[in-house]
Amino acid sequence: MEKEQIKLSDWQRLLFGDAPVEFTLEVVGRTLFTYVVLLLILRWLGKRMHAQLTVTEMAVMVTLGGIVSVAMQVPDRGLLPSVLVLLGCLLLQRGSNWLAFKSRRAEVVLQGDVVALVKDGVLQLPTLQHYRISREELFAQLRASEVWQLGEVARAYLEANGTFSVFTHDEPVPGLSLLPEADAALRATSDATQRQACARCGTLSQPTDHTGGHCRNCQSTHWEAAVC
């Protein structure tokens, strides 16, 4: 469209575009048809598409959105090509799932792998850095699991689908407090111990450690009183 043809008073163009008014009714029919086909495709893709998505599933969802938009709104494109592409996405997703089922290596490449973010109350800082997860993001997830301090955590995993799984000790040891520093009143209710916890990774100090010394895990010199 040439810029001379663009006029704010052209209400028909603003409401219906350059297509004939009859195409509006066609869009309704295209949308209903595409909606039904898309529902069938999602059903055939399986229940995983209704839960947390893996990388491959997210890629398929984005692709589906691009496919159906053309089928619904572009007047010079037919419906059948879009249906065939939708079926192609279905076969691609089913094929990648089959390959992941047959091969552990393919599963890791296509869908990712589970990684430990916390081990026995200690943050795995290289893993956090590699997966670009901040300490506060992890602490928020731990607090959502009703964990008050790192000593309660046996393992915290980042699952392949991006969710967090937290497993706690039956008998927790003292650890770094997870309560926000801004909430001083609530932090004051925690029972402080004689042990010190590294403020960076949560490693507990040993009785022979010097006050203010380097953490043996991350070399930080910032310590806080461990709580239980």
From TrEMBL:
Say where the protein is mainly found. membrane
Its source organism is: Hymenobacter aerilatus
The family note in this entry says: Belongs to the UPF0702 family.
Record-annotated membrane-spanning stretches: 27-46, 53-72, 78-95
How does the record classify its membrane topology?
A: Multi-pass membrane protein
What Pfam family is a match, any one?
DUF421
Record domain YetF C-terminal: where: 102-171
UniProt subcellular location: Cell membrane
What Gene Ontology cellular-component terms does the record carry?
Answer: plasma membrane
* Record carries keyword Transmembrane: yes
The family database entries (PANTHER family) matched by this protein are listed as: UPF0702 TRANSMEMBRANE PROTEIN YCAP
This protein is called what?
DUF421 domain-containing protein
Keyword terms of this UniProt record: Cell membrane, Membrane, Transmembrane, Transmembrane helix
